[in-house]
Amino acid sequence: MKTKIYILLLLPMLVLGTITRAQYSEANDSTQGKSYDQISAMLDSLTAQTFLNRADYIDAQKSLSFRDNAPYEFRSFSDSIYKRNLAKLQSPIALDYNDQVKQFIEFYAHKVPLMKRVMGLANLYFPMFEEILDKEGLPMEFKYLSIVESALNPIACSRCGATGLWQFMYTTGILYDLKTTSYIDERRDPYKATVAACQYFKDMYLIYKDWLLVIAAYNCGAGNVNRAIMRSGGSNNFWEISKYLPSETRAYVPAFIAVNYMMNYAADYNIIAEPPAFSYFQVDTVTVTKPLTFNQLSKALNVPMDELQYLNPIYKKGYIPSLDANYKLRLPYNKVGIYMANVDAIAKASYQETVSTYTQQQALKPNVKFDVVSKEVDKTYTVQHGESLPLIAGRFGVTVADLTKWNHLKGNTIYPGQKLSIVTKEVVKVEKDIVCKDSCSIALSRDSINPNDSAKFAKKDSINTTQTLAENKETAPPINYIYYTIQPGDTLWNIARRYQGLTVQKLKEINKLNDNFTLTPGTKLKVQIGG
């Protein structure tokens, strides 16, 4: 009963989350022939992967001369052979044969170089797919759906924004706990996205009890499939409702069947997998507990940046922001020991690199008055009609488990009008402070300092040196100083312009600075403000 209620609550978001791909394509495809465009684009996206185009990778392939010199001539088989070969696959998914399937078999058969790459990449991803599919009790043939979706390109992005190996839309990703931030996109995480895809298959099978309809719903959303069923008079046969589906989906299921055929009978077309740089068993996973940059990882482990990026597509900017979360890092198995032995040094170098980058960026903004910080904020949210915990959790970027914990809920049942406590993080601006010498702790905004009123932020008992000088030289008036703490992005010029009568040259003289002096954040400078 709970499962049925969950599916009913889930259905509106499933429809909204996945319908966009098909709606977009339907609005832009004027002919059935254009339905091939998206599938072909995914295959072609592999040609742009620098990881796959690296010289050492290509040279390794060329050393296997039998692969490059094997003659190729396109072969077309009779309908009876296609049909017989599909029947031999014995899948719980109905791998039917018809003219549409034949067209896609021959479509993939013509994409020889790219199909070789896809078959090679299968050695990296398919063992993981099969393990998860087996655990979830799903047909193993679903692994081939990822080829139709992304051609096994983990950073593939469709023209309507679907991303990753399994091409999740943003809203559907949120529904299945795939987080997206400025630094990470879990839709591009091979493991997490595969788990999410399997959960979607299971949810849809509870509704349709037919695997081809599940595949159709994965492409165009449950809403489109439901409407097609109604327009057909209630049929649950994909081929009978096909004409009522978006054109992309009409091509999507035949393409899936064709990929099943090609991956099992590629040898009939003399298509042999190109060896990948890594297979599944040559890669291991470690947990990251400190922020790291790919640049420092690459230097310390002697692993090219493109390898790190390809094995870890979840990280969008080459940075692992592991402050309050344990992220995963995939490495060549022979580099794991080196990583474990040097992780502290790598983390320290990554921190220094990050600070240096930040300082350089701030140098371009000499008049910045604020620091930007993130802090937790408690909010109260009123449940609206038709909302569920997964929907609310996705909206605020938290998990269902968090909502349950914060509100002491015993289950996932909520009702309209119910008040929920939600802890979210908000970005706020905080004024930067000037720190005076020793005991002077009056916090002042940089631009609020009155240089003619030194008494507010300079204590006479904290300037013994200048007082002694004044006592020894009666003719010289006492000189008062405050101490300014250098902030990231500061220059001598923008420090001097804040104080009346102070110049860069004067600043250098009173602090005995040479021309090679480097402004280091945290260092204190004397600032003469009175005599």
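^ that was protein a. below is b, sequence first then the tokens
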Amino acid sequence: MHLGHILESVQTDIWVRFQNQVGNECLFFCADDTHGTPVMLKAKELGIAPEDLVKEVRANHMATYKAYDINFTNYYTTHSDENKNFSEMIYKSALDKDLIIKKTVNQYYDVEEGMFLSDRFIYGTCPKCTSDNQYGDGCEDCGATYEPRDLINPVSSISKTTPILKDSEHIFFDLPKKEKMLKAFMEKVNIQSSIKNKLNEWMEDLRPWDISRDAPYFGFQIPGEQNKYFYVWLDAPIGYIASIDNWATQNSDSINNYWSEDSEYEIVHFIGKDIAYFHGLFWPAILDSANFKLPDSIFVHGFLTVNGEKMSKSKGTGIKTDSFAKHCDPEMLRYYFAAKLNDKVEDIDLNLEDFTQRINSDLVGKYLNILSRSSTFIQKNDGDLANSIDISLISEIIKNADQIKEFFEVRQYSKAIRLIMDMADLTNKYINDKTPWKLDNDDAVYVATTAINAFRLISIFLHPVAPKLISKGFASLGVDIQNYNNLEDHLVSTKLAKYLPLLTRMDPMTLELFNEEENNMTNDENLNDMNTIDINQFSDVELRVAKVINAEDIEEADKLIKLTLSVGDLGEKTVFAGIKSAYKKEDLLNKLVILVYNLAPRKMKFGVSEGMVLASSNEDGGIYLISPDDGAKEGQRVK
């Protein structure tokens, strides 16, 4: 899978998590779309059975979805007994209602390969807009659908030869007979107006839909027919029903409770703009023919581009999901997608420079900065929160909750994120305005406790977007995951655990980073012989400028000095440094040093050391602290 494949599931998962967060029961189903000529040919190329290939691919997809926090109720496969049974049932129902017809078609045939060509194995020039390299069933540029033989200058993508036309009897679903029903459906369904307009335009030229393919073909054989198989686009959407049925059966339940005319559930589809025709016309028509409940909503999204370019392996923009996850926490991509997504059918762009800046600015510099700054003052109070808070800030944040909920409900995620970050800005401004570092202990703790409560509210709003990160945020507060029912709660008169950084600033990311595994494959052997690290390993070490504000000798230790370091807005750190042989404690006061800020705390018999300071040494035992040049400020990151 590449990042474009994960866009839809992230958009859907955020919406599902939000619905459950506000108290609605929302179930999330999907399945691997497994049938068709491409699968058959790939399996042949690999020398394995198609069934083995789809099992392997599904396992890979499920691992990817897990890495990106996609929380399906059930993720199944269209190559299943359930799907076969429902496909046959729906087909027979259409047959009984005289919605199935047969026609002889003049179809493209690859003489060299000895097989009829499915739509996706023919490419040529679009007959409507004359765009080149378009598939045989539809144009990705103008959105038109057409018959393969309408293509200009067709070519077989298998043998790269010009196919011939050959007669074959095919089975069709008589879509024009459902025109009245579809027009009524268009009046009721919740769908973007631009897509509805396009569907109404397509409805002016409804044609019988070809639902059969000739052998050889990987799929379900059509009952009562010889060497005829259901076209993948018949059984693929039926996989939604099969996935629910599979889950319901395992839970001693019935599909009828979820997808029948008597069901009280809403049916909501999240789909890409390239399959709007199938979900908006063909799919409701076949559902209606078998007396199934029709979709209530069809939410259509655009595609993903990378650095302004279409995703392309040749251009290096076809970033794979597993490659991305090796170099970056997938939850950061979830947040970035949310910050860009809206309810329109627009492509969104993953600009890697903007991606890094947004994560550093929003999640590190705004959201987590609240917790980091506030915790410093709480720890000075032995970890104890105040017994009251400044309700004016908290009320200002809570009054935005309904608007944030509305934005998530209507899939205007970017507006929700913008408003949530406004609340983070407001909280950081509150801290700056109140200057707790200038106040006495009780007043400083009061300000910090108020900010901690604001952080808790912002965490509730962000939870559907980055569930793992936000769960860690709740854990830092010593509370379970909270939701909108907890908005009026106050976190006071309790003890706060010592804050540990939940996220560090990201370094710039480039396309070369994600393509390096392929580009540098020939150099791996040489690299293994060198004591080298890559940029990501270096980035894992967070170096900060720090100022020594106190230094104490450790009487029981010959080499150690206890340093108290100021790291600016990030607070203070205690470090036990083995530098007594080279430095006197009084000479260290106000000295700027370089601190390894994100080193795991180490418990020593003298106390807990919360980092290391950098120094060089020689064979004679000389020790030399590394200091930044004039102008450096405490808290700055070393890059």
